[in-house]
Design a protein that fits this description.
The protein is an alpha/beta fold. It has 13 helices and eight strands. Bound molecules: uridine-5'-diphosphate (UDP).
């Protein structure tokens, strides 16, 4: 059995959340010479990669990619190469915070609005008192502030740089500045800080279990409907896509 599932030309490793986090644990213990970039690839990114070669190379150059969302997992199953489960940015972040609390890892939190970012830090500090938040910065900074922010991250030397700027902006930002960030691992986590801070409601387990997390998010944030139109388009295109040989 192959250890990856190919969807629209992207190789998704057949890894669970725990297996993915275990790899990151090794990266923190034995840091790589370069920043280890984790990209959680959702249907929107997969579709965007078909036209956008810059985004495609960011995904291909990443240290790890994960299957972000049930859409990717279902398509893999229909195409006969089963991905074991979805590994979303939010689930990955929660697991990293849990393990980080045992291992005293340090985290720099970049992104979300100016009220939500410090609120998320406060919640994380209270819930995971043994990890270190070595810096934080909201995500609505001016272009002229960027240099100062990069220097601050670099001086803080975080084990994990958590980037909640939205996809694919976060992925581009990490890739563009990867040589200057001085973090061991960087990961884009979408709107996860909004959920941690309580600005956006967390999807209840039962909605996740029935694979209708997308519907819950749509009800919570109806303005997302236009973005979610991409899901059926993705399903059809991905199922019909003729994957090349590897
Ligand atoms: N955001 C930000 N700076 C920006 C635009 C967005 O920090 O210039 C934040 C926003 O506040 C939210 C996150 O990025 O916390 C994006 O969340 P969304 O759910 O839209 O992201 P996705 O899950 O689609 O990546």
């Amino acid at each position: 059995m192959k250890d990856t599932a190919q969807i629209m030309g992207i190789q998704f490793p057949k890894r669970t959340l725990d297996e993915s986090v275990n790899i990151l644990r090794q990266v923190v213990e034995e840091p790589q010479p370069e920043l280890f970039h984790v990209v959680t690839v959702n249907p929107e990114i997969t579709m965007a990669c078909q036209k956008n070669t810059e985004l495609r190379s960011i995904v291909e150059e990443a240290g790890m990619i994960t299957a972000d969302g049930i859409g990717i997992v279902m398509v893999s199953r229909i195409k006969g190469s089963h991905l074991p489960e979805r590994v979303t940015g939010y689930d990955m972040l929660l697991k990293l915070l849990e393990v980080g609390n045992e291992k005293n890892w340090s985290f720099y939190l970049l992104g979300a609005d100016p009220v939500t970012n410090p609120k998320a830090c406060e919640v994380i500090r209270a819930t995971y008192p043994n990890l270190e938040i070595c810096g934080n910065q909201h995500g609505f900074f001016k272009p002229e502030e960027e240099g100062r922010i990069i220097e601050e991250i670099s001086a803080a030397k975080p084990d994990f740089l958590i980037v909640a700027l939205g996809a694919p902006y976060a992925e581009r930002w990490i890739h563009q500045h990867r040589t200057k960030l001085n973090a061991k691992v960087a990961i884009g986590v979408g709107g996860s800080l909004d959920v941690i801070a309580g600005k956006v409601k967390q999807t209840p387990e039962v909605w996740k279990r029935w694979n209708v997390e997308w519907l819950y998010r749509l009800i919570q944030q109806p303005h997302r409907w236009r973005r979610q139109l991409i899901l059926p388009q993705f399903a059809i295109r991905a199922i019909l896509y003729r994957e090349g040989r590897r």
